[in-house]
Specification:
This protein is of the alpha/beta class. It has one domain: P-loop containing nucleotide triphosphate hydrolases (Rossmann fold), CATH 3.40.50.300. The structure holds adenosine-5'-triphosphate, iron/sulfur cluster and magnesium ion. Magnesium ion (MG) binds next to α1.
Length: about 325
């Protein structure tokens, strides 16, 4: 795929949430980059910090809930955590559209779906032409009988059609980036495959960049140019999709890769590494993965592993390529 310059840049991005117990660090020095037209998949088990990253692209978490304490995020050249509300409003929708896991939650239950697509275009006065454009978008995302569907309310649509509407709402303003957070998880398996195919087509046609959040490395492989693996608020490995799948380095990525063929495995359960992602506030010292790592060595509990690049554009937070049992 042809790529332009950087559209999204996370640099040392560190995020704290305000909680009743005080500030809680939830993302810790995240580096990510998405070029124009590129698809990056962000992968990890439940609780690794994927949604917090996705929401930080346009600072969806309000200042009353979250604070960037180090580094930052740039979207289309704008420093997102320093931008004012006006600049953020311009970025949301026009530059980056969001699609969430639960389509119903993203839709307004008392508004016809066609009007919701129309609203996303933020026109002062809808015309015949813009109404026709709405119907074209509904058709484009694979909704049968779009004129009829445009007049319906969300509850009259299946979950799969609701998610297609949500995608149409995100795409109608022609954003440069689509942020899709587990967009297929709430749908049944056949519909999941259809929605992924739709994203692939739109990406080819419209040429937009996509940040796809998924806990499924198989899904990531099927659509992404690059894959970043998140664990306990940090990126632990990043590389091209092909390189990540054929040559995973970090023991955590290797466990994710090993879990791919077992379709429908329970979320958050990796056969080779029991347990789950430690919650923010209880991240272990040294390598955060060491309590679960099948090849940990004694030093792993003490020393913070440095980022180690071992191929062009492919690196990981484990200094022992292919596992700590070597050398
Ligand atoms: N408001 C909050 N207060 C306290 N902890 C929070 C809050 N929001 C998120 N967290 C914690 O931050 C961590 C990362 O959350 P996040 O939602 O980004 O995970 P995720 O990778 O998207 O997981 P999932 O796959 O379940 O969606 C989790 O441990 C979560 O419990
Ligand atoms: S070998 Fe050590 S540094 Fe590498 S992932 Fe395992 S515990 Fe972490
Ligand atoms: Mg999430």
């Amino acid at each position: 795929m042809s790529m332009g310059g950087p559209l999204v840049e996370f640099e040392g991005f560190t995020l704290e949430l305000r909680t009743e117990q005080g500030p809680l660090r939830v993302l810790d020095g995240v580096d990510l980059r998405i070029d124009e037209g590129e698809v990056l998949a962000l992968v990890g088990e439940s609780g690794s910090g994927k949604t917090l990253c996705a929401q930080s692209v346009t600072r969806l978490l309000g200042d009353d809930r979250a604070r960037c304490t180090r580094g930052g995020v740039r979207l289309a050249g704008v420093d997102v955590f320093k931008a004012d509300e006006r600049a953020l409003r311009r970025l949301r929708g026009a530059t980056a559209g969001h699609v969430f896991q639960e389509p119903a939650a993203a839709l307004n239950p008392v508004m016809r779906v066609g009007d919701q697509v129309l609203e996303s275009l933020r026109l002062h006065r809808p015309t015949e032409a813009t109404r026709a454009e709405v119907v074209r978008w509904l058709a484009r995302v694979g909704i049968p009988a779009p004129e009829h569907r445009a007049r319906q309310y969300p509850h009259e649509l299946s979950g799969g059609l609701q998610q297609r509407v949500a995608i149409a709402i995100a795409l109608a303003p022609r954003p440069r980036l689509l942020v899709a957070d587990e967009p297929t998880t709430a749908l049944d398996v056949t519909v999941q495959a259809q929605v992924l195919e739709l994203l692939r087509e739109l990406r080819r046609e419209v040429g937009m960049a996509i940040l796809l959040v998924t806990h499924n490395l198989g899904v990531a492989e099927s659509i992404a140019d690059r894959i970043a693996v998140l664990y306990a608020g940090q990126v632990v490995e990043e590389g091209s999709a092909a390189s990540m799948l054929s040559n995973p380095s970090h023991p955590y990525t290797r466990a994710l890769v090993a879990a791919i063929p077992r379709m429908g495995h329970a979320r958050g359960e990796l056969a080779s590494v029991p347990g789950g992602v430690p919650a923010p506030g209880s991240w272990p010292g040294g390598c955060r993965f060491h309590p679960r790592c099948p090849v940990a060595r004694p030093s792993c509990a003490m020393e913070t592993p440095p980022w180690t690049a071992f191929a062009a554009g492919h690196g990981s937070r484990c200094p022992y390529p292919a596992g700590g049992d070597r050398a």
